[in-house]
Amino acid sequence: MRKLGSNIWVVERDFSFSGTDFGNRMTILRLPSGKLVLHSPVEYSDDLANEVNDIGKVAFIITPNNFHGLFSKKWCSVYPKAKYYTAKVSGAGESNVLSALRSVDLESSVEIVKIEGISKLNEFAFIHLESSTLILTDLAFNFDSNVSLWSKVFFKLNGCYERFGPSRLMKSLIDSPEKLSCSIKTISGYAFNKIVVSHGNVVDVKAKEKFSAAFSQSEIGFPDKKVKLKFSFSRCG
After folding, report:
1. At 122, which helix (H) or strand (E)?
2. What is the Cα 56 distance to its own chain's centre?
3. Pairwise CA distance, residues 237 & 233, whole Å
4. CA–CA separation, 170 and 140 (whole Å)
5. Contact by Cβ (8 Å): 120, 114
């Protein structure tokens, strides 16, 4: 577990999919009351749970888009009193659909923005106000050279190697650049100096500038279908 700032931690784990080193990251937020929010849980272990228990009481467990949630069930079974919210509408009850969660439910210390314009992704961005941190899941990656040779090739082909931003695959899922642009403007209206992503490195230098560049109008237009990569992230944590 690594502390990023005031009342925010990340847990990073190795995670490989189809031979590609994606890695995986859970973000833990501690609310003013001391309650904890587990954002996009990584694989459970008793040792990790003990570390989590040392900093607070788990009150919320969140699956932030349609592609994550692989490890949420185990965490929910260990913390049955925690409220579970998921972006996955299919099979979810009304009480645990993520769109029903409001900032006030998180003691107004976290803002939540539904990212429109990529319906297959159905991701929600979180802004932790106290630490000025934007928390994303699969909307953007940030990989460097510390990956396998095959991973470097894959990420280069997918347009997300040694740069922060959406992959070509993610761009191919955009069904409304206009709606996505509105969501990006909403997110940009918040003050943040760090960006946590589920896959790749935390952005802690010129975070807002890099975010604006990665999601500029020229970047989020419909991609060239000729370079569309067919790949499923349905089990990426």
Report:
1. none
2. 22
3. 9
4. 8
5. no
Domains of the chain: 2-227 (3.60.15.10)
63 to each of 23, 35, 173, how far by Cα in Å? 17, 17, 19
Q: How far is CA 94 from the centre of its chain?
A: 22
| pTM for this model (two decimals) | 0.89
Q: Give residue 6's Cα distance to chain centre.
A: 19
pLDDT tens-digit profile of 17-65? Answer: 777 778 899 999 999 999 999 999 999 999 999 999 999 999 999 999 9
9-to-15, 25, 81, 135, 182 alpha-carbon distances in Å = 19, 10, 22, 12, 29
Nearest CA among 213, 223, 211, 216 for reference residue 172: 223
Question: Can you say whether residue 22 is alpha, beta or left, with left for phi > 0 and alpha for psi between -120 and 50 degrees?
Answer: alpha
